Task: structure prediction
Amino acid sequence: MPSFPHELPLALFRNCPELVPYLLKQLQVELPAYREVLIVESNLTELTPTEYRADLVLTLNDGDTPLAAVVAEAQLTIDHDKEYSWPHYVTGARARLRIPVVLLVICNDEKVANWARQEIVIGGDWRFRPIVLGPAQVPWVKTPELARQLPELAVLSALAHGNEPAGLEVLLPTIEALLTLDEQRKGFYYDVVLRSLNDAMRRALEQELKMQSGKYEYQSDFARTYFGQGLAEGEAKGEAKGEAKALLAVLEARGMTLDPSTRDRIVSCTDAEQLHRWIVCAATASSLHEVFGTP
Result:
C-alpha cells in the first residue's frame, strides 16, 4: 500500500485539482487557456502485458474538450526504474488522450528532486526531462488571503517550509486557512502539518497561537480545539516521564536490581497514574514481583 507521505501530495491534488496547473505556472510551464481541471483514469496500459499506472492524471479542459494533460507523480526516493516508466506514462497518456502531455514529479527531498530533473536519453535524438517540484520550488504562502484562496497550496507550503527558520510565516496563515474548511479536511490537513513539524517548531507554533489568542478569537478557538489537545498530551507525557524517573529512583534506593525488560516497561509507560501506583507499592514492597507481578 502506498505510504502516507507518498499519498499526501496526491490527496492535495485530488481535493484541489486546480493546484496542479497553478504549480506548473510557477515553474514557468506554458499551458493552454483552459476552463476546468478534471481527474481522469491513471491506468496508462495500451494493450501490453505490463500495466503502467501513474499516480494521478489530470486534463485541462475547455468545456468537454481536453486541451492538455498532466501526469502527476509523487517520488520519495531515487528509483532508476522510473527512468523507463516515466516516458511511458507520457507517451501512453498522449496516445490515449490525443493531446499534449507533461509529467510533474513532486519530491519532498532536494536530493531526489535533483535526480528526477536529469535528462533521460530515450534513444537517437529523443531526450526526455520531467518537470520537477522540489521543496525549494514550493511557493511560500505568507498571506492569509492566498492561504484561504488555495488552502491545499498553503498546506503544501507548510510541509515544505514549516521547519525552516522563518517557518511561522507560512504556518500561521495555513492554520488560519484551515478554519474555512469542512471538519474532515480541516482535521486531516491540521494532522499532517503538525506531524511534519519538529519539536522546536511545534512548540514555537503553539506558543505563537497562545500569544495571539487574546487578539483573535478564531485563533483562540482553534488553539483550544486542536493545539489544546496537543499541549495536554505533551503535559501528560512530561508527567509520565517524571513519574518514571521517580520510580526508578525509589527502586534503586531500595536495592532492587532491574532486568532490561522491566526497565523498558517503566520508561515506556505513558500512564502517569499507573506509574504513581507502582511508586506507592515500591515504597514498601520487598520484591519486584510485589510491584509489577513479575517473577
Q: What stands out?
A: The first strand starts at residue 36 and ends at 40.
